[in-house]
Amino acid sequence: MKMKILVISLLLTVMCLSVTAVSAADYNITNENYNKYFDASGRILPGAINDGDVLNIEGTLNNKDLTINQSITINGKSKGKLVNGTIILDNANSGASVIKGLTIENTNKNGIVLNQYASYSLITNNTIKVKGTDAFSGYSLYGIVAYGWTLENNLTDNYIYGSGTVPYFYGIYITPFDAYWSEGDANPQNYIISGNTLKIANDNDYAAGISMDTVLDTIIKNNKIDVKSKKFAYGIISTDSYLYASNLEPAENITISGSDVKIEGSMVYVIESFLGTKLTIDNNNLNGIGDGVYGIATYYTEGANITNNNITTLGGDISSIGYNPDSIASGNAPITLLANSNNILISNNKIKSNTYNIVNTTQAQQVNQSNNTVSYIIDDNSYSSFFDDDGNLLPTSPITTGATIFIANLSNRNIVVDRKLNVYSFDNNNKISNGSIKITEDGSGTLINGLNFISDSNVLIIDSSNDNIIEYNKINILNNYDGSDGGWLSLSGLVVKGDSSRNQILNNNIYLKGADSSNSVYLYAVDLSGSGSNPKDNVISSNTIEVDSGYYGNGISIANLYNTTISNNKLYIKGDSFAYGVYVGDYGSGKTANNQIINNNIKAEGSIVYVIETFSAKNTTVTDNVIFGYGQAVYGYAGYDAVGDLIKDNKIVVVGNDTANTPFNYDALGTGQGGIFYKFSGNTTITGNNIVSIYTQGSDYGIKIINSTNGSKDDIYNNILSSDNGKRLGNTAIYTDVLTETILTATTKAITQGSKAIIKVNLKDKYGISLFNEKIELTINKKTYTATIDSNGIATFSIANLPKGNLTANINYLGNSLYSKSSISKIQVVNPKKFAKISYKYVDKKVGKYIQRIYTIKNTGTKVGSISGTLKIPKSVTYIKTQSKKITYTYVTKSKKLMLKLKDLAPKSTATVTVTVRLKK
Questions:
Q1: Could you tell me if 247 and 274 lie in one domain?
Q2: Residue 6: which H helix or E strand, with range?
Q3: Is the whole-model pTM more than 0.90?
Q4: Is residue 440 part of a domain?
Q5: Is-contact 787 795, C-beta < 8 A?
Q6: Coiled coil: which residue ranges (predicted)?
Q7: How do residues 656-668 score in pLDDT, each as one tens digit?
Q8: Is 229 within 8 Å of 211 (Cβ atoms)?
Q9: Which end of the chain, N or C, is less surrounded by CB atoms within 10 Å?
Q10: Is residue 150 located within the same domain as residue 116?
Q11: Do 821 and 850 have their domain in common?
């Protein structure tokens, strides 16, 4: 160790002297001026470049190496490129060099090489692509390789790609031997390998992401490593292959942290430690797929902390691997500790594997395991380790209640879930082919998430089980049975049966396709059929469902269930003979009630179509759905023996061609055409729907109700309706044998004989909703009048020539096919005609030599009156003056006339005027 420190000091001294000798300069190196700075072998020409200089690579250098023996910076500035050229940091004189921003694309040549003593350098942000071909005459290819004693080099944020066919392929390789495999002066040490992306694919026997031989004090962190090999594949290796060398120490103090490592091959070692001490492996995502896979494998490793990693291994049959030269023999385990590996901590790891043996400690000592979470992967290779041939869990299975399992590729295998489990797909590409999963009562509370089924028969069954969640699964059922042998077939994507409650079927994608056939092949996407005490509260929501059947197709079918919610689903159902979008029925249980069909988009196509049907169901709610049906005979919504339905705010379009041209129909509703159809049902509310029924033959209805139950009171209002090819609009598109009650109200005002009487009438249904465009009849004074209710809900009658008195107006609504008739009576008051009657009288009063004649004028009539008159003053008197508070007057002297005017004298009112005169002598 003392010798090592002395050599390092000498290296530092040489480097410092060399860096301070000459001022730094920038050079632009191009393919054309390369020979100005380098000889034919790639070495720097004497005096051409000094320590501290910057070489900017411009454009592409073709078939030119750069062998560096000075401390310089090589900068590609993200555009500079070497094609079939290697950069070599040749010795200690190249220490503290920087290689950055370059692209290196080589065939059968290494990318960057660090020879012995090349230290303290930074290699960052480079893209290195190395391809090997059959013409390669060597043994190994490297993206970056460091030979001999090198130290404190930082390899950060590089992109290293390797591909082709060579015996050995390494992304990064660090070894204590020099390029000629002579023993180096000391261990490589103090590397930081961080933030790199390595992708190696070797179509030959061996590939590794990062490999280190006898390295000390090195940190490997935050790298992304993806390695594939035809035979042996390694992610990160720390070995001590050359421990026998006299001047080397054992590999020690290696940290592997925060990296994503994905390895695929025949025999896979995601991380391997061979003859090391003080190993830390933490916070990594480790994934291995192969015939044999080790997530972490140690051999004679002393002191290792394996903590907080996500480890996933998917192994197979190791017999196909053949000879394996690795000291850690072929096998399968997420973690295996061999050859007296000692003092190992395994804690807080999340482990997924298809092997029964998760941590192999048979050859290890002092292993402390705590807080690790284990999930099992089930595939064709591991199935028999956990299940018997019928799909039941083996008594020895480590899968316990509450466990999580992942399903990889399975073929012709069934699984019976008899305990609460969390079941996920291993990845998006895995498939369950011709297999099924059944959840029993003891499996209640199970989660099935993200599985991909491809089958010709039923795949998911919930049998008398509760509180299960089936979500984000893909179900594809393809079956070619055509019934030509006289038999029949019924298939379902997902079946819920028995006394099953509170199950949730969410966000699944379900597709069923059957053979083109006129025979009995029945396809159901989701089929819930309850039995037992009280199956209820199941939810079917946000699924995408498509059924394509040559005979009978059904999207969602529920029977004998209470309070089921069917919401936000998208359905397209095709059945050449029969197509049902959603079916809600009861087969004698009497428990089918309070089910809800809300906000679905349902399209059904066939010869006979029921986009939604209810059968013997109570209190079904159907709201905010988009309903479309196309065929020969189409009902948008049809109910048989349905009671208490609420059909509200749906958009319904049905298009039919000819109900007579259809197959024999066993459905009790019969064959017909219309937006909404009820038979033997009652107490239905239909409101706010927009319904269009288009039928080539005509005479169809938007809403039709027949054979209603006794005492039924249906409420149908505020719907927008069109049927009979647009000939029946609004209420004329409704046929019902149960009429809605109506209520008439009217207002009148007293009038005087000779004025017109204005009578206003309003018609409402029993819910207080005004009706429009209905005709109202009114009879008064032995005459009958007719008016139509306008857009404001008022029918207005204007009647003249009524006699005086309190007259009775009889008002009638005659009703129609939807609304019942109603009538009321109102009194119209007609007061006698008013007139004014003016009379007057006077008295004379003598006041001294004057005479005052006082006139009193009175209106004895019933109407406001006015007068205008003239008083002649006799010649025997002299006019003096006139006085009055209400009467205006004017005296004309010449004619001796007094002009009087009185305006608006109310009935029974009086006015006085006093005229004063004097007698002539």
A1: no
A2: helix 2-19
A3: no
A4: no
A5: yes
A6: none
A7: 999 999 999 999 9
A8: no
A9: C
A10: yes
A11: no
